[in-house]
Structure formats: structure tokens, C-alpha cells
Amino acid sequence: MNNKSKYTQFIKSEAKRLGFLSCGISKAGFLEQEAPRLENWLNQNYNGQMSYMENNFDKRLDPTLLVDGAKSVVSLLLNYYPSEFQNSDSYKISKYAYGQDYHFVIKDKLKELLFSIESYIGAVSGRAFVDSAPVLDKAWAAKSGLGWIGKNSNLLTQKVGSFYFIAELIIDLDLEYDYAVTDHCGTCTACIDACPTEAIVAPYVVDGSKCISYFTIELKENIPSDMKGKFDDWAFGCDTCQDVCPWNRFSKSHNEPLFSPNPELLSMSKKDWIEITEETFKIVFKDSPLKRSKFQGVKRNILFLE
């Protein structure tokens, strides 16, 4: 077995040991197919007030501009599908936000993976990325065979659907590369038909500025009044296009203790949400992604839903 093959197998087995759902590897380089797609998406103003999407355009498309001498993009998936769900009489939050903030959980795993690689191979230079840098996560995951980009613009897999986080290690090491898989959306339009705000404007194209996740998390000003009554009780994020996707029948619950929800969250009713104090919010959502919207942001969303 040559070194390239040996190193590749080691990285994939370590990723599995650390609890990642799957690991795929692609050659670092310019994402030719994504460039016109991203440019067109930005030109349509589908990013709304997410101005950061316009920054670092070149870096988004070429990881060699992020990591000197980058040769491989190691893409990883981490399952977050819960085993228990919110009370049915509740304002809804996205399942990814049930537990601790994934940025910290995954970053720790990536650091350990990089440390293992360096311990096994020697000096390897690289960086870990979790949704906080100009990296097109879904494009790299699809390129490395971890799934295909669905009509709702999420990464989908036949075995486990789409309830997982995507992260990367970009490293200066030559490895064996995986191949993209075929699209299995077929003629299905479940996600397009179900989107409460019609944010999926065409198959594979999402107008981010119409998405409930955008309104409830990214938008800092008041939610437009013409959206009143369209949020289907979503107070933070939205899972509708994933919930209706047939491939998510195969979702299995995660086994990451840090993603387990605070029991109080699961039992909260609409009345509890309306009456929640800042003190209780800080206790129930300690280290939670909801801290991104802060207490005032979540209260704004609840008031809009009433």
C-alpha cells in the first residue's frame, strides 16, 4: 500500500473514531462550476442582508487561497438528528439548535483529527473550517462523494438524509480522492411545494432573503409585515424543506451527548415562550445557537408569530 492510500485510510478511520458520520476527500482547487452559480446568486440579491456572502469571492471558490500549499479538502459530516422533539404546542426551533453550539463541538473534533494526522504522518499544515469562513461546504462535500445538492440546496444522502453539519480540514497533503455521486431527487418537488415562504424559487435555487431561517436569525431589523402568518410557528430557523424530504425517512438519531437538548426546551409551550425571562433564557439556552439571536431577537420572533 502506498503512502497516499495509507494516509487516506488513516484519516477516514480517525474521522469515524471521532464520531463523524462520513468523510470524503477532494483535490483542492478552483471550483469552476460553482463560480458562475455563486455570481448569479449574488447578482439576484438572494443573500439579502448577508453581506458577508459577497466578501472573499475568490477565496470561496479556491481553498488554495485560504491555506498555503493546500492539496486536499477533507469534508466531514456530523449527525445532529435528535431522538426527542419539542412539545407539539410550542414555537419551533430548528433541530440543529437543540443542543450546544455546533461550532465549538465540531471545532474540537477537527483539532483532534488534525493532531492525529500530524502525530501519524509528521508535519502537515492545514486549517479547520466550520461554517465560519469563506468555504463552500456543500459544494466540497458533494465533490467528495458525501451526497448530492438537493432541490432545497441542502446536501442529501440516500442513507441518512440531510440532518447533519458539514465541516472541512484543508491540508497540504496529497491523498486519494473520492468521486461525486449522482442526483437522486428525481421528479420530487416536496421541498418546493412545502416551503412556507416560497423561498425555493426554482429547483436547486433558494432565495436566501425569503427563507424563514434568514428572517429569524440573520435579519437584524424588524421582520417585514407581509410575512405575517407565513412562518408556521418557526421562531428560530426552519426545517420544513428537510422534514418533507423523502430521504429524511432514513435519518437516525445522533449519539453526540453535547447535542442533547435541555429537557426544559422540549417541554416548553407557546405560553412558556411568550413569558420567558432573560434569566431563564440564559439558563435554558446556555451555549446554544440561539445565543446568536440573543434574547431580544428571539422575543422579536415570538411577538411576530403571535
Question: How would you explain this protein's 3D organization?
Answer:
- The active site is at 131 (proton donor).
- Monomer.
- The protein is α+β, with helices and mostly antiparallel strands and 306 residues long.
- It folds into 2 domains: 3-83 and 99-171, no CATH class; 190-253 and 260-305, no CATH class.
- It has 12 helices and 10 strands.
- The protein has helices spanning 3-17, 34-43, 57-61, 102-121, 137-143, 190-194, 212-218, 240-243, 263-267, 270-275, 278-284, 294-305; strands at residues 22-27, 72-79, 92-93, 126-129, 148-149, 155-156, 164-171, 200-202, 205-206, 234-236.
- It has a 4-stranded antiparallel beta sheet with strand order 1-2-7-4, with helices on both faces.
- A hairpin with a 5-residue loop joins strand 5 and strand 6 (155-156).
- Helix 1 (3-17) packs antiparallel against helix 4 (102-121).
- The model has no long low-confidence stretch (mean pLDDT 95).
Structural class per helix/strand content? alpha+beta
Largest sheet: 4 strands, antiparallel
Summed up, the domain count is 2
Number of helices: 12
Widest β-sheet, arrangement of strands: 1-2-7-4
Describe how the helices and strands are arranged.
Elements: H1 3-17, E1 22-27, H2 34-43, H3 57-61, E2 72-79, E3 92-93, H4 102-121, E4 126-129, H5 137-143, E5 148-149, E6 155-156, E7 164-171, H6 190-194, E8 200-202, E9 205-206, H7 212-218, E10 234-236, H8 240-243, H9 263-267, H10 270-275, H11 278-284, H12 294-305
Parallel strand pairs: 3-10
Antiparallel strand pairs: 1-2, 2-7, 4-7, 5-6, 8-9
Active site: 131
Catalytic activity: epoxyqueuosine(34) in tRNA + AH2 = queuosine(34) in tRNA + A + H2O
Function: Catalyzes the conversion of epoxyqueuosine (oQ) to queuosine (Q), which is a hypermodified base found in the wobble positions of tRNA(Asp), tRNA(Asn), tRNA(His) and tRNA(Tyr).
